[in-house]
Amino acid sequence: LTVLNAGRRYLKAEDLSGKVFVTSGLGGMSGAQAKAAVIAGCVGIIAEVDEAALLKRHKQGWLMEISNNLDHCIARLKDARRNKIALSLGYHGNVVDLWERLVYELDTTGELLVDLGSDQTSCHNPFSGGYYPVQLGFKEAKQLLSTNPGKFRTLVQESLKRHVAAINRLADKGMFFWDYGNAFLLEAQRAGADVEKRGANKTEFRYPSYVQHIMG
């Protein structure tokens, strides 16, 4: 319902075939995102750093494909988008790399490859394993978390700023991004990312919440 309503409200579209939804998280509640994309008929690319979560969703049949190669992900995205095929593709890697690759595609080809975007990393708990920084691989990040939590925190905040910068670039060209109630925008703001709404007070963000703006 969230994906469908986002399409209705922001894309003015009842049919999401050929539309692309990019997000992250295939653990607990976020694991439903892959199936939601296919039910809605769009192309869903979902990033996940934990291979165990990816394999679990794939085994359950909730996730159609898995890849750790961004070139392959972009090729599959373009093919499914062009042919209007419903697809859920799990990218085994950091979502910041995925967002930045989409910016690269925009900058080099002029093509905006994503229509809808969100995030379901566990940003309510970003410094204890809920969000992994793009600067490190999953295992290295877990090790740093246990040996030097202060450094881990710094890297997470740097990663959040890169994360938002890429989203802002794509949103400026027409992608519609929303907050999925995971404290992503709040933690990004605390990290110093550009998420505040222009001309509003500091408690308002430039991107809407799914509760009020989409489900409401």
UniProtKB/TrEMBL annotation:
<protein>
    <submittedName>
        <fullName>HUTU hydratase</fullName>
    </submittedName>
</protein>
<dbReference type="InterPro" id="IPR023637">
    <property type="entry name" value="Urocanase-like"/>
</dbReference>
<feature type="domain" description="Urocanase Rossmann-like">
    <location>
        <begin position="2"/>
        <end position="214"/>
    </location>
</feature>
<dbReference type="Pfam" id="PF01175">
    <property type="entry name" value="Urocanase"/>
</dbReference>
<dbReference type="InterPro" id="IPR035085">
    <property type="entry name" value="Urocanase_Rossmann-like"/>
</dbReference>
<dbReference type="InterPro" id="IPR038364">
    <property type="entry name" value="Urocanase_central_sf"/>
</dbReference>
<dbReference type="InterPro" id="IPR036190">
    <property type="entry name" value="Urocanase_sf"/>
</dbReference>
<dbReference type="GO" id="GO:0006548">
    <property type="term" value="P:L-histidine catabolic process"/>
</dbReference>
<dbReference type="GO" id="GO:0016153">
    <property type="term" value="F:urocanate hydratase activity"/>
</dbReference>
